[in-house]
Design a protein that fits this description.
The chain has 342 residues and is mostly helical. The chain is built from 21 helices and two strands. A two-stranded antiparallel sheet has the order 1-2.
Length: 342
């Protein structure tokens, strides 16, 4: 009896779909444009959706669903249902523009405080994001973010990190978010040579635990000024014919720290942007597109755009236009142009 009822439902739905399919008003080109409006990794093409969807009748929508098998799946009851993964992905894409606007209007301290919180509440935690915030901001900028964090969450960044992280990662990250680095250009040449040797001895040991438990490595990376560390980086290259971060390749958290502290910001952020606009970026990599453009527009976007063009052989604006869609694309492009004009 239940099987007969199921067959009756399927027949009735089939007749209804046949009736819907008798009047098609959208062209194949419009259906393809609608599919493309859904399908970019960054944002959606709101204008195409508006122009096409408002004039679609049920037959048009049925045709669209049937001809979009990677968006809709055939159900046993003879209708096309959303693929849940694609539906969730589309919901996130609709939020890209909204999140970019909100981040743009935030005070930089509040924005960075929220990003600090996000970095360790994600699963798995985004240590690289926390390192980026602690190491690419000036001492005063990150001090402001620490003040905002206390205001927003009634706890310090240091205690938040200490509770969330364990072991060597805790020691490193708590030290990074606690430090107030000297921002000047004064360096100690003798100390640079000595500390370069200390890093080399720790790195070239056969035991990973030794470098993670080396207090001198921790002290150097978490207290020395960026100019001092960049000079150590140069000395290491000259003395050992290899880059410091390359020799730390098997300890990602230290490699990320050295990259953020020693690489020119334009090189670091252009690499982040290239990864964000790759063919299949992970969700956190996609979010970096908004983060970098919004946070660096009034800082060093001109340098980042120039480095991106030099390193990847394509203007940053063209890459954004190819990767993003709709209002989100237009917003990012406008911010980059503004930053390049400063």
């Amino acid at each position: 009896m239940a099987e007969r009822k199921k067959i009756t439902i399927i027949v009735r739905m089939g007749k209804k779909l046949k009736k819907e399919g008798e009047k098609i008003t959208t062209s194949p080109e419009e259906c393809e444009a609608l599919r493309k409006a859904f399908s970019g990794p960054h944002g959606v093409e709101e204008k195409s959706m508006l122009e096409i969807l408002v004039k679609c009748n049920p037959a048009d929508l049925t045709t669209f669903r049937k001809n979009s098998p990677y968006i809709f799946l055939d159900d046993e009851y003879c209708f096309e249902k959303w693929d849940l993964f694609h539906m969730k992905s589309l919901e996130i894409k609709f939020l890209h523009f909204q999140r970019a606007v909100i981040q743009r209007t935030m005070h930089p301290w509040e924005r960075d405080a929220l990003l600090v919180r996000k970095s360790l509440e994600e699963k798995p935690p985004l240590y690289n994001l926390l390192i980026e915030l602690a190491c690419t901001r000036t001492s005063d900028e990150f001090l402001g973010a620490r003040k905002a964090f206390q205001c927003l969450y009634s706890e310090s960044v240091e205690e938040f990190v200490a509770v969330k992280v364990q072991g060597f990662q805790r020691r490193l990250l708590v030290a990074l978010v606690s430090t107030y680095r000297y921002e000047g250009m004064r360096i100690d040449e003798a100390a640079i040579k000595l500390e370069c040797q200390k890093l080399a001895r720790a790195i070239k040991t056969d035991h990973r635990n030794e470098i993670e438990n080396d207090d001198e490595v921790l002290r150097i990376l978490t207290t020395r000024s960026k100019h001092h560390l960049k000079t150590i980086h140069k000395c290491y290259k000259e003395d050992y014919d290899s880059n410091l971060e390359e020799d730390l390749d098997d300890i990602q958290i230290l490699r990320d720290t050295v990259n953020c502290l020693c690489a020119p910001p334009a090189i670091y952020f252009s690499k982040i942007l290239d990864t964000a606009m790759s063919i299949c970026p992970a969700e956190q990599e996609m979010e970096a597109l908004t983060r970098v453009i919004v946070t660096r527009t009034n800082v060093d976007m001109k340098d980042i755009a120039a480095e991106f063009d030099r390193k990847y052989g394509a203007p940053l604006i063209e890459r954004i236009e190819a990767a993003a869609l709709g209002n989100y694309r237009d917003f990012l492009v406008t911010l980059v142009k503004r930053g390049m004009a400063n």
